[in-house]
Amino acid sequence: MEIENSTARRPEHRRRKKEINDRFLPIRQWLNIIFMVGAVVGVAVYLLADTNTPGIIIILASMVFKMIESLLRFIR
Predict the structure, then answer these.
(1) Residue 4 in domain
(2) What's this model's pTM, rounded to 2 decimal places?
């Protein structure tokens, strides 16, 4: 009885959180993978190529995938 009326509670980080059913999770994961690969390739091209323009274009194109992923996160 005393435990039920106690104001002491377990810390939030130790409680088991409810699993949120995210229907876009697999799509978001693929979009993140595409973004990360594109960003790494874009930086490599940016640093190794004679001109910086192709690297910048690749990085900007990969950022589009990240923006789409973040929009899906908000829609959830």
Answers:
(1) no
(2) 0.70
